[in-house]
Amino acid sequence: MKKLFVIILFISLITFSLAANSRMEFKETTIDFGEVESGKVVDVNFEFENTGDSVLIIKNIQTTCGCTATKLEKKEYQPGEKGVIPVKFNSRGLNTKITKTIRIATNEKENPFPVLKITGNVVLKDFAAIETEPDQLNFEKVKIGKDYSKKVSIKNTGTIDLRVVEVTHNPEIMLEFMQKTVKPGKDMTVNIVFKPMQEGRFTTFIKIRTNAYRQRLVIIRVNAEVEEE
Prior knowledge:
Blueprint: H1 2-19, E1 24-26, E2 30-37, E3 41-50, E4 56-63, E5 68-69, E6 76-77, E7 82-90, E8 97-106, E9 115-123, E10 130-133, E11 136-143, E12 148-156, E13 162-168, E14 173-176, E15 181-182, E16 187-194, E17 200-210, E18 217-227
Parallel strand pairs: 2-9, 11-18
Antiparallel strand pairs: 1-3, 3-7, 4-6, 4-8, 5-7, 8-9, 10-12, 12-16, 13-15, 13-17, 14-16, 17-18
């Protein structure tokens, strides 16, 4: 009889152990932080509770990109215990609607990999933008040793000053700037001087680097057919 009681108790303990389960229940799994200005850091907290009857263990947290980061105070939560998954989102360099995903690995049996999402709209209010015209210069037939010139227009379509940071080009090309800063809504003309030194087909690229938001590097192609004097 005693042996039978021990067996029944043992089976009951196994059954209870198998039935016991943690349950990670979130207050909300998607949080919309609304509209923020680009460059701001947004802090979002996902509140949860272990509504199961065994210890909840958070094994790992993964995010969809380096824009989000999480740091937990601890990884184990008793039945009935509440906790928070903090998410930090850096909106620097963005100007768009976003959706970021946070994937969690737990010891829960029914849903071991819950997914969280943050959404919102990032707006860039202060930025420089560049438009160039033309983006290709064709000097056609030219003579060795002579100077030729064409003009390129650079316009700032942004809201802050556009600054020319760096210019790289072939030694046979020279750029003449009246200034290297363009006010919002204004434009400037750059004189491109070409002095061919070698006979044959000539192709090169002028690279202008600025502080423009999207297109920081502008590339202008230069073509020519160089003939002897």
